[in-house]
From TrEMBL:
<dbReference type="InterPro" id="IPR052158">
    <property type="entry name" value="INH-QAR"/>
</dbReference>
<dbReference type="InterPro" id="IPR009057">
    <property type="entry name" value="Homeodomain-like_sf"/>
</dbReference>
<keyword id="KW-0805">Transcription regulation</keyword>
<dbReference type="InterPro" id="IPR018060">
    <property type="entry name" value="HTH_AraC"/>
</dbReference>
<keyword id="KW-0804">Transcription</keyword>
<dbReference type="InterPro" id="IPR002818">
    <property type="entry name" value="DJ-1/PfpI"/>
</dbReference>
<dbReference type="Pfam" id="PF12833">
    <property type="entry name" value="HTH_18"/>
</dbReference>
<dbReference type="InterPro" id="IPR029062">
    <property type="entry name" value="Class_I_gatase-like"/>
</dbReference>
<dbReference type="Pfam" id="PF01965">
    <property type="entry name" value="DJ-1_PfpI"/>
</dbReference>
<protein>
    <submittedName>
        <fullName>Helix-turn-helix domain-containing protein</fullName>
    </submittedName>
</protein>
<feature type="domain" description="HTH araC/xylS-type">
    <location>
        <begin position="211"/>
        <end position="309"/>
    </location>
</feature>
Length: 318
């Protein structure tokens, strides 16, 4: 997999193609020889000059003989990807290229039909849109990237670097990927997935039928609340409550309650020095053991690791 072509849609931000260029477009024969033959391909090659060497700039025809094709994020997911780009990416895959998307580049792969019947990911903010627009795609918003053989997809932004390092690891081995990660001052492999970055949503409308109840629950998360407790507070039956929750939140009362407990635990881990035992008690999860199990299953990393990653301002205040 020595040749890598970066297919740049119109309007792609610099950040989106910086990671692939830094990994594959810089001469790193000191790490592995040969390294990669890197090219940048777009519908308007002239617009790419000044950012890349002239001999690395091609039109979309440059995808035709590349071993690996990378599609970074699109400018706007509401805009249909251009037919030329979609056709070029599909043709490259049909010819045998490994096709990779970063962030919302997954929408291009989906438009080309390359994700039909496959697990794929994208930025968690856009995962629902991808799933609705392309129902044959098995969208997983919880992971940083998915390697499905000849098709690889990553989550948003920095997850593109995770996937690029994974490609190097696949092509050249863990030792080379680890050395490159040290040069780039990034982790060779990040634990967990996107779940640790996703916040638990609250209904946007404040006038819905559950508005008072949800506020009441959020103020009592430390209590051992049950569905019956919530139904009693709302003065409805448990069955009616379940229907109302499905309509307003899209989930069940217990799942919503669990998500709010996890969200409160995340906030306390980020902003306080409270022990895991105390946070477990204050979020209604009982013991530290129970909290660790539920937190890891939901967020993808243990509470202590989450705190080290997202801790805010405590050192400065000390």
């Amino acid at each position: 997999m020595t040749s890598v072509a970066l297919a740049i849609p119109d309007g792609t931000s610099l950040f989106e193609f910086a990671a692939p260029h830094e990994v594959f477009g810089v001469d790193r024969r000191n790490l592995a020889d040969p390294w990669y033959d890197f090219r940048v391909c777009g519908t308007d090659p002239a617009r790419l000059r000044g950012w890349f060497p002239d001999n690395a700039i091609r039109g979309l025809d440059g995808l035709a003989d590349a071993d690996t094709v990378i599609v970074p994020a699109s400018r706007d997911i509401d805009d249909e990807p251009t037919r030329d780009l979609v056709d070029a990416v599909r043709a490259a895959h049909d010819r045998g290229a490994r096709v990779v998307s970063i962030c919302t580049g997954a929408f291009v792969l989906a438009a080309a039909g390359l994700l039909d019947g496959r697990r794929a990911t994208t930025h968690w903010l856009h995962a629902d849109v991808l799933a609705r627009r392309y129902p044959r795609v098995q969208v997983d918003p919880s992971v940083l990237y998915i390697d499905d053989g000849s098709i690889l997809t990553s989550a948003g932004k920095a997850a593109g670097m995770d996937l690029c390092l994974h490609l190097v690891r696949t092509d050249h081995g863990a030792a080379v990927a680890n050395r490159l990660a040290r040069v780039l001052v990034v982790a060779p492999h990040r634990p967990g997935g996107q779940a640790q970055f996703i916040t638990a949503p609250m209904p946007e409308r404040r006038e819905h039928v559950l508005a008072d109840l949800l506020a009441w629950v959020v103020g009592r998360l430390e209590q051992p609340l049950t569905v019956e407790d919530l139904a009693r507070q709302a003065n409805v039956s448990s069955r009616t409550l379940a229907r109302q929750f499905a309509a307003v939140t899209g989930t069940t009362p217990l799942r919503w309650l669990h998500a709010q407990r996890i969200q409160r635990a995340r906030e306390l881990l980020e902003t306080t020095d409270d022990s895991v035992d105390l946070i477990a008690a204050n979020t209604g999860m009982g013991t530290a053991t129970t909290m660790r199990r539920h937190f890891h299953a939901t967020v993808g990393v243990p509470p202590d690791m989450y705190r080290r990653t997202f801790r805010t301002g405590l050192t400065e205040r000390a």
